[in-house]
Amino acid sequence: MELYTGVREIQVRAEVINQIYAEKTLEIDLEKRVFDKRLRFPNQNEYLHMQSLSTNQQAIARVKGQHLVLVNGKDFTINNVTPRNLRQRMTFDALMDDTIQVVVLFGRAGTGKTLLTLAAGLHKMEAKTYRRFILSRPMSQLGKRQLGMLPGDVDEKFGPYLDNYMDNIEHLLNGRYKSTGDLISQFRCDFKPLQLIQGSSWAGAFAIVDESQVLDWEEMVMLGTRVGEGSKIVIMGDLGQRVEKITPERTGMYKLVNDKRFQESPITASIELTKCERGPVAELFAEIFGV
Length: 291
Description:
Mean pLDDT: 85
Order of helices and strands: EHEEEEHEHEHHHEEHEHHEH
Number of helices: 10
Helix content: 25-40%
Shape: globular
Strand content: 15-25%
CATH topology of the largest domain: Rossmann fold
Number of domains: 2
Distance between the termini: 19 Å
CATH class of the largest domain: Alpha Beta
Structural class: alpha/beta
Strand order of the largest sheet: 8-7-9-10-6-11
Low-confidence stretches: 141-148
């Protein structure tokens, strides 16, 4: 079974693109002729990159109920972060829609998963949409050589694993906050090691979980069942950098997004980010090593 990407590219007639730009939404029942009959019908919150058969026109739409809804036709900026490609625009669309309570983002390093999610999360906290801002990830180490036991209490042990968040938070300061500590304090950023969340209940929270490709099925269940009322969780990872003992099919991310119940749910969305935007060096290494 192929990994469900949450994005489909299709070709349509030019008048279909003109119509969705004009009306912002189209009833799918009335537009079945848009789709090739050999293709499966789209899932809820699946993103469609529609390209004209006869012109250079294109549009991005998301399936919502029985409609195709136009995704913002122009690039929009959140906390001084502007999408650099079409799939980043789709990502912001899913992150900013509070009816989508579970967003799964996967893709190779440098595609913008963490930066986009932090920018959206901070925006939601500024708007007081959520009461808590939870940042989590597994305390797993890279490679076969492990650091061993780290000194200190939980916060001190978890600190070295937070560079992925802290580097991006630093990027988001933009003179609006004195320091990362000021931003973290203002928005009650709560750093949670994934190994210690059992028994937790996250209500009214915007929760971000990075490096989720290392989670197996049982660990993904434990993570998902932490999410309470009024919360949104963003699960991020790169299946090309999973631990060796877990095949892609045994990862929690793979099972989650490939389940029809996930794909057909109105509260979930999945997006594969494919273009490295970190810089030419990161892109070169990712291409050479196929990650």
